[in-house]
Amino acid sequence: MTDFDRAQLRRSVLYVPGDRPRAVSKAETLAADAIIFDLEDAVAPGAKADARETVRAHFAAFPASDRERVIRINALSTPWGTEDVLAARAAMPDAILIPKADDVADVLAVADALDETDAAETMRLWAMIETPRGVLNAPAIADLSRQSGARLDCLVVGTNDLAKEAGMAGATARQHLHAWLMQIVLAAKAGGACVLDGVFNDHKDAAGCAAECRQGAEMGFDGKTLIHPAQIAPANAAFAPAAEDIERARRLVAAFASDDNAGKGVIAFEGSMAELLHLKQAERLLARAAAAAQRERSESP
To answer: Labelling 237: which of 192, 196, 209, 247 has CA 20 to 30 A away?
Structure first.
């Protein structure tokens, strides 16, 4: 799987508590595009060391995977952060997820720690935006994705913590977060980073989860973080290109490739004008659709 393909396949990103060995081992069999092995919020303080060892043992047993794997560490300012970074570096996941990234320094500190231990350049960093300060600094954080040494690849919204830090409460808190969510999406797009929506808390509400996944896709998120395997299918469906969009993209690519339009930057297409930027969008959509189809084939029994 190429890095480009992986960037297209973050529709469903499942958190798995690191202190639950059965859940950790089962993660490799799930249809999620990516797995976050969690050493932070999902693990009680007294279980941190055991969680770290469980995740380390899992990566030793499964050094390779056909899905993207991420380890969420505790902040470097906590008693567990340094050991988490060392364990994650040894496990060699695709990325390390930094919690509560308030500013650029929080990301660069982990990047520096990886450099000091000669971690492979392919090991990326994801940053959680889950505080008001993180939202305000999201543009600067996202811009790190353009700096190779910073390793940043993805922003992850922590909607629960963000609502809590802002003093929001109740079942409708998300609707009041929309302006901030769009601010994070805009920052990610400007910086060239992937951006993932926060979790849907009620894993028994299938309809509500599907609706929020569709909303996240409409808002411009690249995928959604999840708390339960039952949420994987709705996320995969919501963040996959629709069949009619795939067919239109194919027609557009074919139109630009025709002899009549060879070398043109603007063409007439189905009643409107299409530019090269539309061609690039169509090619990206088709690449995303192809990667999703390949994943579905690999998951089929």
So the answer is: 192
